[in-house]
Amino acid sequence: MSDHLLEAFGHKVKALRLAKNLSQESLAALAGLDRTYISSVERGKRNVSLINLFKLSGALEVKTTELVDIGVASD
To answer: What is the pLDDT of residues 16-47, one digit of tens each?
Structure first.
């Protein structure tokens, strides 16, 4: 289940990034993160910390609740 959540979250981050016409490198710079970190998040390979969740939502200019609304039920 956790892999599915990470993949769904990664797809959401990527969709929001592309909607803002940002490269991974640009998003990383805005969020104060490394580009390889953004890549691994988008591929569902990273479990994002709370601090980085807020950094990503700020860089994408969306509410954190919108960022984590990935359309899957929690247990």
So the answer is: 999 999 999 999 999 999 999 999 999 999 99
CA atoms within 13 A on the CB side of 44: 12
Evaluate whether 46 touches 6 at the Cβ level (below 8 Å): yes
Residues 6+ apart with CB under 8 A from 24: 17, 35, 38, 39, 42
Residue/partner pairs of 22-29 with CB below 8 Å, 24 or more apart: 22/60, 27/56, 27/59, 27/60
Give, for 27, the enclosing helix (H) or strand (E): helix 24-31
The pLDDT of residue 73: 63
Determine the Cα–Cα distance for residues 75 and 64; give it in Å rounded to an integer: 20
